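Inverse folding, one chain.
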């Protein structure tokens, strides 16, 4: 089963401590070697981004920052795991690294099962 883990936190948390990034790199290396992590990455601040929206039949683009955002997606990872329980264990392990290496940081990791074209029957 494929899972996406989405890390959310307040916009202005600052740069993570080097110790945390080193611990995350070590964890990612282990999970990549076992074939469970398919990809991951951190995201820059919304001030460097943009949003493209379809509403009322119109497509519009808006540059960041997005002042109305109370929390933002700060990073993600994709995994191939056996179950939701295994995905939750992985997310807890990741959040424990934050607890240990970035005292006072607050955020969450959302765990979502992913679907691809093979998960939907083809209508012909």
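Residues assigned per position:
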């Amino acid at each position: 089963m494929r899972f996406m883990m989405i890390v959310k936190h307040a916009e202005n948390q600052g740069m993570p401590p080097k110790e945390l990034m080193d611990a995350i790199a070590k964890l990612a290396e282990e999970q990549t070697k076992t074939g469970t992590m398919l990809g991951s990455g951190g995201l820059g601040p919304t001030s460097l981004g943009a949003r493209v929206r379809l509403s009322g039949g119109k497509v519009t683009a808006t540059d960041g920052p997005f002042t109305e955002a109370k929390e933002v997606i700060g990073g993600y990872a994709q995994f191939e795991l056996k179950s939701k329980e295994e995905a939750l264990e992985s997310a807890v392990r990741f959040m424990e690294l934050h607890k240990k290496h970035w005292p006072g940081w607050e955020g969450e990791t959302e765990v979502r099962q992913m679907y691809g074209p093979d998960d939907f029957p083809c209508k012909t």
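Residues 22 and 40 are 15 Å apart (CA to CA). The helical segments are 18-33, 84-101.
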